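Regression report. Comparing outputs from two consecutive submissions.

Submission 1:
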Amino acid sequence: MVIVSFADKKTERVFQRQRSRKLPANIQKRARDKLLVLDNATCERDLRPLPGLRHEPSGEDWPGPWRLRIDERWSLCFDWQDGSARAVQIVARPR
């Protein structure tokens, strides 16, 4: 497993195929798909060439140095250390 820690329970629930009442239902399947891709990556570089994955540095508005966009408002933010994703969380863009 590449994901070694989650920043919150709601993200961990989505990863475990459980519903989270704290997240909109319409983003949970897409978020789970991206979590599975992240979990199967063997290195951060594996995330770059996948079309539509939208892997990018997170910038100032987002926690963690990396993110995978779920849609225009929601992203999966994480830190990559020693071949593992850490502090993974589903986050909405601040308004």
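Submission 2:
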Amino acid sequence: MIACRDDRPVHDYHIEVAPGNFNRLLPAWTGDYFCRENGKALLRRESFPDIELNDWQSALAGRFDGTRSVEACLEGQAAADRPSTANFLESLRRLGYLVFGLK
């Protein structure tokens, strides 16, 4: 939930996970969920099934630290297309794994 004054511009607080906003979104984990085990990248959370990440998801997720934009996290990432990245990020946000700050 976000609460603010009526006169605050929506752009200052509204978070839309879309390719056009990747430079202003700063993804951060809400807990210590990202791990590597037996050569696999996983999201592990108590009382939830593990989520195995593919190679590009793993490379991207390993860069989330709350200080780098999504765009910066994508540097050097060849295979991931922007809509797939947006879908991945939005699903992690909806499941409560990620939060986003705004640049």
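Expected: both submissions complete independently.
Actual: both completed, but the second showed a warning that disappeared on reload.
Relevant detail on submission 2: Strands lie at 25-29, 34-37, 40-43, 51-53, 98-102.
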